[in-house]
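Input record (Table S2, row 78):
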Amino acid sequence: MPLYEYYCPQCETRFELLSPMGRANDAATCPNGHAGAQRVLSVFSAVSKGAGGETAPIGGGSACDTCSSSSCSTCSLG
Ligand SMILES: [Zn+2]
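Output record (zinc ion complex):
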């Protein structure tokens, strides 16, 4: 399960959270109990590159950029 970074605007706290694929963009609850913390889009995990320069969220399609399957059995990123 991927680890995402979230930011709570109410207490200005950043925290990390394991989120299932497809749930990364949902609002989270911070360690202090505030609902509505938003995911921080880091340099590493924000977007994957598209052929035409467009960006797409990670999480759809194959498990990582170097695998054509979804199992990631042929690379070290899984
Ligand atoms: Zn908070």
